[in-house]
Input
Amino acid sequence: MYDFALQRPQSLNEAIEALSAEGAQALAGGQTLIPTLKNRLASPDVLVSIGGLSELQGVSETDGTVSIKAGTTHGVVAATVESYPALASLAGNIGDPAVRNRGTIGGSLANNDPSACYPAAALASNASITTNKRTISASDFFAGLFETTLDEGELITQVDFPVPDAANYQKFDQPASRFALVGVFVAKYGNDVRVAVTGASEDGVFRWSEAESALAGNFSSSAIDGLEVDSEGMIEDIHGSKSYRASLVKVMTKRAVAAC
Amino acid sequence: MATVTMTVNGKSVSGEVEGRTLLSDFVRNNLNLTGTHIGCDTSQCGACVVHVNSKAVKSCTMFALEAEGSSVTTIEGMANPDGSLGTVQQAFQDNHGLQCGFCTPGMVMSAAALLEENPNPTETEIREYLEGNICRCTGYHNIVKSIQAAAAAA
Amino acid sequence: MSDKGIGASSKRREDVRFLSGNGKYTDDINVRGQKYVYFLRSDVAHGKINGIDTNKAASMPGVVGIFTGADFAEVGGLPCGWQVTDRFGEAMKEPAHPVLAQGKVRHVGDPIAAVVADSLEQARDAAEAINVDMEELPAVIDMKSAVAGGTLVHDELETNLCYDWGFVEENKEAVDEAIKNAHHVTSLELVNNRLIPNAMEPRVAIGDYDASNDESTLYTTSQNPHVIRLLMGAFVLQIPEHKLRVVAPDVGGGFGSKIFHYAEEAFCTLAARKLKVPVKWTASRSEAFISDAHGRDHVTKIELALDENGMFQAIRTDTYANMGAYLSTFSTSVPTWLHGTLMAGNYKTPLIYVNVKAVFTNTVPVDAYRGAGRPEATFQLERVIDKAARELGMDPIEIRRKNFIQKDEFPYATPVALEYDTGDYVATMDKLQEIADLDGFEARASESRKKGLLRGLGINCYIEACGIAPSNLVGMLGARAGLYESATVRVNATGSITVMTGCHSHGQGHETTFPQVIADMIGISEDQVHIQHGDTSNTPMGMGTYGSRSIAVGGAAMVRATEKIIAKAKKIAAHLMEASAEDIELKDGSFSVVGTDKSVGWGDVCLTAYVPHNYPLDQLEPGLEETAFYDPANFTFPAGAYACEVEVDPETGKVDICSFAATDDFGNVINPMVVDGQVHGGIAQGVGQALREHAVYNEDGQLVSGTYMDYSMPRADDLPNFVVDHSCQTPCTHNPLGVKGCGEAGAIGSPPAVVNAVLDALNKGGYNVSHIDMPLSPSRVWSAING
Output
């Protein structure tokens, strides 16, 4: 790792202040950032540790909404969220137990890894992502590989998930990293069905709108039998071709619907 | 350099560290607790697992300064007060749950964390919990058996 | 089953230190005043170094020294330990293998320069400031293209072909003829995928130098410290053995990858001498991926000729074996003597011809890994047999049984130069059918179908040759080393025993199992025996641990030394009891005169040896310590039969291992618990190779699967519990313990079972797929299903 200063602010305000400095970067759970630093692929001057801030911890469930503070670990989400089982289950399958004890929802969303799980849940639920400055709809948040619409120094503080009538997440593991080779999150709100896909596209998480339309009229896995996913723009690597990923999107979508 | 203070295996310790000093570096180099091992640099192998405030974490993926004020347990803190092997450790010996011993400290720490959360895990639950601990020697068979035995003995 | 001594599942004493965090691995050693080295490695696969500017780096904080190839120009290269002679009687091509690159880099990871500094991060900072003027050259990665010509890995060799080996060359015409005239020929082209060893402990080397007596010490992660001392001392650095100590303390797994002498060991030893400070190198995992010797990487065409009854008539194989950019220590022996000689398997095939072309490419060197040549032989043979069975409509078990060498045919000379001493392949297959519940397969397959999954069963056999020997034979075959093993048995004055062995334990459990043997021979408690290994300063010259040789060769040396101890102790006892040594019997730790009630205890005899007051000093030296070197008369031949059941998800291509059963004949077994564990680990490796693991290079020579993010290691939830059995025992006839070795069997025997099972599932499910290359990843299986 290149050298940097590690700051441990005692409050959210202090953290936001610290993050406004040139070369400062937030350190949440560090489960992606620290390996990146080890390989010298990032060189922040200052890391602002926010993982321990009590203002960023906790889950509350009221009026059909699950509100998760940004510093809440995957492990806590998995163990505490009751009203949105698909979300809890997704959190419980990120990384491994030790990673889940450090990694946070805010860190995951801000990083927007194209194979991460949380972006699929946020997009399928049209979650509201609140920062120190504003609230961003998930539909407006993700902006391509490792890109979001967050400004410099802007920090996620909370994520609110409207609880759907039914939902399910199907993750097909990349064999080595165990990130999603393809992950599909299906959430049904009344007649509105949202299908968010992670792991597959070169542009990061996306909604499969054809499937959404078909499922809105007939919420059963057979409703998408006739659909094909365009393999153009899919990721291709040693773990799978574009057409393999496209096929998996359909298979995982059907399974998610069937499991709803 | 900054000073960090924490409790490790029941004793208060402090030391001078850089911002980039990992918790694993701190226990290995500052405290000479070399039972915590480093087997990868992508946070996957789990040889470095310790408990921080009773939760299993990868000590190579956490900075020492982030553990300020925490209570940390390493493999060296898992023995019984009389120095004999603790329940999980003993179960590993009884069931040949280790060969070269390199992944073993992390395995034991993960196993202990699992049994804390779930005292009677099924075989599937044990295997899934060990997702972040890689062993190249045992094929996991006897590790799973060891953890089942530890659960039965507790 | 006994509860102590040979045959007992004694708990491992070494576990106590490993489980309490008190293991002492090389990285746990810190020598006062040590500095840290960071290697600047090539990030291109092939390039010409036009210049290296270290000026800026040299002035950076903490830098103690910077070394480039120029500093090592006068130092010897890393030697290759086995010279292969090709089909035409010519010696193999043997390029120089410098410690630091000399003008050219030949693979990603090739070390260009090394920075020694006060801290590792400072060393790395300075390494980044070194300016290398590198002219990138086209890389040659594919073996067949490499042989065809064009880019040369080593210009001076004028070819990328290391050797073209034929075995047995005299059989070639007869084999060709038999295949031409055969009733049926099954042909299969396959890849044995390149693996990365991934012992969980990355390699470490610490060089230390004591100028006051001109002595160097190297602490290193090695399976064979004496071999490293010899190779590095005599061939690379010219340090005589008495001035060079090599210590391999606790080692976190080896699997072959820690046999070899590596550049980093020589570097740290020499840098410590030059800088007069201890120099420590600890590999990161990412560095291990591009600096540890890789394994396997064969491309093979195999043909099996059969008659109308399914009897094997001839086998012909044609293999390209990747050597990588340089010849690692035992690389050349792997595709030849450890591979070609195994091609008969468990079967009576009268004619066999093996051709191997070893090829240089711009990739990390390839050498022995967890089975070394034998997995490659087993895989192709057992795959082609399965394919033949399918083509001929025969049952895969029946075709194997038909062709087995029968129990009463041992010793059996194969057409590929081996003489198997013992075996009972029918018995291991019978046992397999029992423990794997093959009769219940159809019911299980029906349950799988209800879930939309395809179930398949894969069967195969294997034979292994362990404890490669004797030395005079391997010398004729090109080995530049002997393959004996040594032991010194030191009986202490009060009767406890220290055994100094040339073997090295890095997971095998020698510290527990070796004492079981001695305790059995003498009749004392196992606790009375201590095993010392891993330090050239206090163990006799030995060849180390690999190739499943330790108990068969090292254990035999220990038995021989103990026999000498017992013979001498009997003379002492005879003197004490005023009897003849011929009349003395040793039982349960007590010497008695046959036919009398006279006896004297082990402890009394030992004390007498060291306090020789009442002692035949005119006939016998005091003391009780003996050394033996044991050179086996032949290899040992473990063999077995394996079965795997899988479920394949046809929609995703994902394969789940439902069950795995293994029956092995290891001859006599010292510690069944330890033997089971060795097999378990091997099976996990075999399943890993079959389904997950793959070192992938792109055409530019970049290692695409260069971390655990892309190199898929088998994890606990990828595997089932294994059913293993080693009750079929045909003891080895030529070593004193009747043992055969068990370390590699699992890794050798399991890949074909897995692949055969997947193909069985697909074919039974209506997909006509004849082969899929390993690893059978979901995407590959899906592609096979979807044409």
The mean pLDDT of chain C is 97. The radius of gyration of chain C is 27 Å. The longest strand of chain C covers residues 312-324.
